[in-house]
């Protein structure tokens, strides 16, 4: 085989996204708060961008006074410098603009005093409204430990034990005691560590620093608790049988009646299997709806984009003037041309986002009117491709439009993705959403005979009676997702006929 090196010309078609298209998709995907941050970042980087903020206290300023692509004057349309000609058309348009502008050029971006004050006020509000950091599990335990009068060595070991506890894991001790001691430790050191562990386990919340579930529950069991001895027997020897609802086996081994075991089981449920979880920091997202859905006087739904806080952007007239000024240097012109192009792309991308998001939301609302009127049980199957076909865009555009976007409806604030659900068909050929099937499944289980609950096969048959043909594995999958126990675990043995 002959091998050689050389140059070869080959013609081929390659599809690439233009930078302008990429920016448009990025802007479309941003939720409201992220869009505001992006605009602020662009304004800091591009001195040609200026904004006109709406005053939320002035009703007239809340009206959408942004010029649309169709209503903008000729001077405001597409001020993108084209290097393919001598820019004569751009210069002619620029000459029609306001002439009352500074005659000197300053290439540094200087914010106005009002802008500086606004930024200062915004930072002050953020600091004033910031949530204080909640006390962690480790801090809570260390605070209690510091109030105890104990040996310094034991206190040091107790602090080491506390440092290994994690609220996300329920506050269990997962590290063996011996691993916390230095190599070559003595039996006395190990005994001190065990004593330190007992000290930590005596702190609040009860059950903390347990090595397993059994120890956790036993440490919470008060000596004066009702049925203390019987509950201790169940915790030490029958937790697995309790979890699997094998009450007859427990009755056979312990001699307790089924009714008494049921009482003990309910008492055990008052104990906390994860005592440290109460200190886990829960993240509650700050949801700001991008879309407002309201009924008009005719009773029809109207979609309105809630972007009043998004400033109206325009290109600085000062720099427009500098571009057509014959005294401007070539470096100034090149700088301004680049910044004008970047600014115009951003303005157009925001306008495109507004248009696309509105059209997508209107199409979604039109398809899911029954869901909005009647509730979750009336939601209909909907795929993003259906909305894409209706709006006339690619399905990826719909995906970006609904990503991390929220809509305020008469039924509360919902994510736009909530309206997209899969489904199946009834025997009559009617489409049924999976959400509807899940609601029906929950209803069947709520109303079943607890002495003889439905198996998954029986649930399939019951759903079929309602016209919903679903496979058994699908019923099992959704039952587990809904954290519904199996039929054996749902059985109430006190109702079983003897």
TrEMBL record:
Keyword Nucleotide-binding among record annotations: no
Q: Where is the composition biased (Acidic residues)?
A: 52-63
Which Pfam family is one of those matched by this entry? Sigma54_AID
Gene Ontology molecular-function annotations: DNA binding; DNA-binding transcription activator activity; nucleotidyltransferase activity; sigma factor activity
Ranges of Basic and acidic residues composition bias in the record: 64-88
Question: Where does the RNA polymerase sigma factor 54 DNA-binding domain lie?
Answer: 334-491
Q: Where is the RNA polymerase sigma factor 54 core-binding domain?
A: 128-319
Does the record bear Nucleotidyltransferase in its keywords? yes
Instruction: List the residue ranges of the region (Disordered).
Output: 48-88, 102-122
- GO biological processes: DNA-templated transcription initiation
Q: Which UniProt keywords apply?
A: DNA-binding, DNA-directed RNA polymerase, Nucleotidyltransferase, Sigma factor, Transcription, Transcription regulation, Transferase
Q: Which domain of life is it from?
A: Bacteria
InterPro entries the record matches? RNA_pol_sigma_54, RNA_pol_sigma_54_core-bd, RNA_pol_sigma_54_DNA-bd, RpoN_core-bd_sf
Q: Name one GO cellular component term.
A: DNA-directed RNA polymerase complex
What protein family is recorded?
Belongs to the sigma-54 factor family.
What is the name attached to this protein's record?
RNA polymerase sigma-54 factor
Organism of provenance: Novipirellula aureliae
Q: Which gene encodes it?
A: rpoN
